[in-house]
Amino acid sequence: MLWWKDTYKDLSQKEMMDDRTLSVILDDILSSRKMETWQLQKEELMAFVGSHSPKNYAELCSLVYYHFGYSRGKRPEYWGDKNNYYIHHLEAITALFPKAKFIHLVRDGRDVACSYRKLKQLKSTSAYAPRLTAEIDEIALEWDDNNTNIFNFLKNIEKENQYVVKYEEVLLQLEKTCRNICTFLQVEYDPEMLEYHIANKELSLEPSETIDWKKKTLEKPDRSRIGQYKKQLRPLDIERFNQIARTSLQRYGYKS
Predict the structure, then answer these.
(1) Which residue range(s) make up the domain with 10?
(2) Mean pLDDT computed over 190-201
(3) Burial class of residue 77 in the structure, from the number of CB atoms within 10 Å of its CB (0-12 exposed, 13-18 middle, 19+ buried)
């Protein structure tokens, strides 16, 4: 969506609907990082996009997402995308999609530090395996910067287009949190949302290229992950994290 924006954002509908040009655009999109995990067939995608005649690059991107849904047997009316990459490109998203809705999922940064350190020890052959630091100062600075960046961005968009949810709420009150998010998005709640782990096991929704560090998607919410830093981090590390990220910790209700 964003990697090819500068290349194709100014193309007219007529230019995009030229078969040769559209073929080049889709070749580029399908060559993007991790896109092979979507297992899309170019010929089918090209026919789908062509049949809907997108007016601009944003509409073309939307059709790629919709086609992915259709390829998985869905009949999507809306699409969404969760990617940490977007943290530093939020304005670019609103430039493409002025009516976009944003969900900010925030987790206690000290528990994030525990996860970083655990992932640092991960043995994976995937080209996409996370490359994370284990240094507490670096984790704290990154967590604080990311959440501050999102906070400042959300101050400048309409309230009805933003929703903040804490990771701990997801673990403790999954159904309530799902219902609240559905209300925010104006979509119908479905009890099957709570059975995501079953669907992931049966349908392998998480690609093999990324499942090594996303195995929690195969399990029910694990409440023991809340406050794990109290046992896993040294007091000195906790104190250091609190010093660096105190403002963000307090902003989201985490005691420091």
Answers:
(1) 5-71
(2) 94
(3) exposed
